[in-house]
Amino acid sequence: MTKQISFLTSLILLAAVTVTLSTQSLSVINWPLLIGASVVMALTPGANQLLSLANGFRVGVVPAMTAACG
To answer: What are the tens digits of pLDDT across the range 14-24?
Structure first.
């Protein structure tokens, strides 16, 4: 189920980026779309979440959050 949600989320983001790129110049960055896509991808369960969780247990919450935001 999680893989299906992740796949559907990726497809929706890809469609949004495609529509945005087809209507705007490539030199312009759509910051709200980029930040929104980054947040959705960061919150989607997967390898990134496991890495953040492992770092949080190993070195603490603040370094893990810093790494996740970077």
So the answer is: 777 666 655 55
pTM over 0.70: no
Q: How far apart are CA 64 and CA 68, in angstroms?
A: 6
Residues 6 or more apart whose CB falls under 8 angstroms from that of 56 comprise 64, 65
Transcribe 18-47 into DSSP letters. Answer: HHHHHHS-TTS--HHHHHHHHHHHHHSSSH
Query: What is the pLDDT at residue 43?
Result: 79
Question: Dihedral angle at the C-alpha atoms of 70, 66, 34, 43, nearest 10 degrees?
Answer: 120
CB neighbours of residue 61 within 10 Å? 11
